[in-house]
Amino acid sequence: MKSSFHGTEAKQKNMSEAINVQHGAAHVEHHDAHSHGHHKETFVSKYIFSMDHKTIAKQFLITGIIWAIVGGLFSVLFRLQLGYPGQSFPILETFFGNWAKGGQIQPEFYYALITMHGTVLVFFVLTAGLSGTFANFLIPLQIGARDMASPFLNMLSYWFFFLASVVMISSLFISTGPASGGWTVYPPLSALGQASSGSKLGMDLWIVSMALFVVSSLLGGLNYISTILNLRTKGMSMTRMPLTIWALFFTAVLGVLSFPVLLSGLILLLFDRNLGTSFYLSDIVVNGEILANEGGSAILFQHLFWFLGHPEVYIILLPAMGMVSEILSVNSRKPIFGYMAMLGSLFAITILAFLVWAHHMFVTGLNPFLGSIFVLLTLLIAVPSAIKVFNWLTTLWRGNIRFTPATLFAIGFVSLFISGGLTGIFLGNSTIDIHLHDTMFVVAHFHIVMGVASMFGMFAGIYHWFPKMFGRYLNSTLGYIHFWVTMIGSYLIFWPMHYQGLAGIPRRYLDKRGWVSFNDFPELDKMITIVSIIVFAVQLMFVFNFFYSIFKGRKVTNPNPWGANTLEWTTPLRPGHGNWDGEIPEVHRWAYDYGKDGREFIPQTEPIGENESKH
Amino acid sequence: MSTVSLEQQKKMHPHKFTLWVAIGSIVMMFAGLTSAFIVKSNQTGWKSVDLPKAFYISTAVILISSITFQVALGFFKNREMNKYRSMMGITLLLGVAFVVLQWFGFQDLWAQGITFKGSGAGQFLYVIFGLHAIHVVGGIITLLVMFIKAFVGKTKLYSSVPIEVAAVYWHFVDFLWIYLLVFFLIIGG
């Protein structure tokens, strides 16, 4: 693969000249904006309505952290109910009043908690908080651009996210409570206000908030794609880009093509709720009252929802994959193994992401023949996934590994991705899925492979790029404690859930004591709850580390603290708006020349030497 | 050197490129809705509609507005600013006329007794044509801003990029309308 660079060198030279001319124009334009901005930068324009991609990235990150605390706290609360059903915790009544009457979490509150936990973590933390942060931060820095293609749209993207957050938060404080029909908001439960208290105003606010969120993610995605394809510096051909950028590119493509379909589904839902249409409703009796709605199909919503819902899984996962590839290569001081295979597998995952949505619907009465096609397509994802795992392991293999907290979290990601990926093979088979559907097995699977794994990718990214973001280091000791407790804790929480699921324990149940068949694991549930509380406490310690280190952390003195090749480390210690003080550096090689010709690392900006071995 | 300048010319302005990606996104939204329409139209109890005349008139209006926009762009490039302004004005009026005609179409349907009750072609029509009209309104607002800028701006406008970007969007909503109309005629009828 490296030799292919050699063959196309002449062509690339031509291309890069063309890029240079184009780039020159962009440069002047941006530079004007830059020096212009310096004169009248106020607090508001610098920190609040900022158009600097680095500031916007930090806004996404900090908003995401706040949401992660909220969403994590929700899970601790419903774990209390699952671990200690029937037990009274008077402190809950102090804080939540009627939602926890007598110190016990009420059924409506329980369903609101699990719904909001899913919504918040999937969309607000692992979509906006993850790709919002790192796409904004890394794309211009790693491809050598002064900012995004449209800094203004980029700013709007954050503020739409902020608005979505405000609407979603406000739904927590209304008397009927937030949406509580599960994060997938299936009709008819979500379409009929009389179905549950959470299906009233809370559901409308959920839809409005998600519509704003979709706008935010589209504005962001458009910008990421356009920036990556148009604003690369001289010499930065597509195949010289770090894998982080490739992963963020495919993430943006997935988002831009799948979120609008969710919006379509939600618009129809909004009509059904408020204007009396029957897109999803038919033959329904609520409390003895026969509804007039006829001719609708609830399954239609599931198709529209999962057409986004499945790509969404990869929207969450791909940025983590990209960052893990980069961090593992930098910290094992070895080139990434199989760059082209990594790129090809990202592409394959992106395509397959659109072709597997019905595997969420095997038990909806889907035609079994159709189901078998979706089984095949689903299991095909194992191929690119296995390629990626193989390449991560071979990148680590015999590397000179530096076990920084970022490296550990990246390795943790690989471990979780393997564990969670294997159970995906179970669930992807429609026959086994009939037994496992809607059990704790599913909960265990997607939390490990998508939820926790992506959180690990996010932590790895934060530990690794914190010095570039804030000019200081995170405390490593706290980082190691954070890693080991989270790593062991995650397996202790989610591994036992597989057994529960295989034994047929359903998910989403409030209290399993009433069912003899589901009442086999009360002690296991207690253990999971206790570990969840410990792991949550350690995340709060990380949050402390994060904010403390912004102001008091050890200062970065070496502009390239990890000895990395990529362009972001060629910027000043605290880059201003525009990123580079002088010219944008030119790129002469790919991002992974580690340990080549006896040198520890060769930055992308260094021209190819005369006596250099193949490149 | 000539190849370099050629490459440069071929390269699309980033804003225009961004718009094309956005168009892809909007297409996906309508693809979601129209595929829902196809799925529903095969189920029992489906009711089709006859399109009111207003929708055919509005088709003509939006087609003409695309032409006038293109003519306006030509005038701008030749720096014939007065003609540019008047052509932009006409395009703007036609855009508004399109949205008003859609409204008349909705009223006609409503008068026929096709309301929000049910889930046939009529209900989909309100949602899909309504969303399309919102996209046209977005274009009208952009046009309005450009129209005002053409009169009051102190600095002279030379770059045709913003107008080209707006024109691409305008042609897109025009094309999208034709697609939706044909779609309804074939599958909804």
Give a structural overview.
The complex is a heterodimer of chains A (615) and B (189). Chain A is mainly alpha-helical. Helices cover 65% and strands 2% of the residues of chain A. In chain A, the strands form two sheets. In chain A, strands 1-2 form a two-stranded antiparallel ribbon. A two-stranded antiparallel sheet of chain A has the order 3-4. In chain A, β3 (594-596) and β4 form a beta hairpin. The longest helix of chain A has 37 residues, at 107-143. Chain A is globular and about 85 Å long. With 189 residues, chain B is an all-alpha fold. Chain B has helices spanning 2-10, 14-41, 53-77, 81-111, 121-152, 161-188. The longest helix of chain B has 32 residues, at 121-152. In chain B, α3 packs antiparallel against α4, α3 (53-77) packs antiparallel against α6 and α4 runs antiparallel to α5.
Largest sheet of chain B: none
Q: Which structural class should the secondary elements of chain A be placed in?
A: mainly alpha
Radius of gyration of chain B, taken over Cα atoms and rounded to an integer in Å? 19 Å
Give me the CATH superfamily of chain A. Cytochrome c oxidase-like, subunit I domain
**Helix proportion range of chain A:** 55-70%
Which fold name is given in CATH as the topology of chain A?
A: Cytochrome C Oxidase, Chain A
**CATH first level of chain B: which class?**
Mainly Alpha
What's the overall average pLDDT of chain A, rounded?
91
**CATH class identity of chain A:** Mainly Alpha
Strand order of the largest sheet of chain A: 1-2
Radius of gyration of chain A: 25 Å
The total count of helices of chain B amounts to: 6
Mean pLDDT figure of chain B: 89
Instruction: Return the CATH architecture of chain B.
Output: Up-down Bundle
Intertermini distance of chain B: 58 Å
CATH architecture of chain A: Up-down Bundle
User: Number of helical runs of chain A?
Assistant: 18
Q: Regions of chain B with pLDDT < 50 over 5+ consecutive residues? A: 1-9
Shape of chain A: globular
Element-by-element helix/strand order of chain B: HHHHHH
* Assembly state: heterodimer
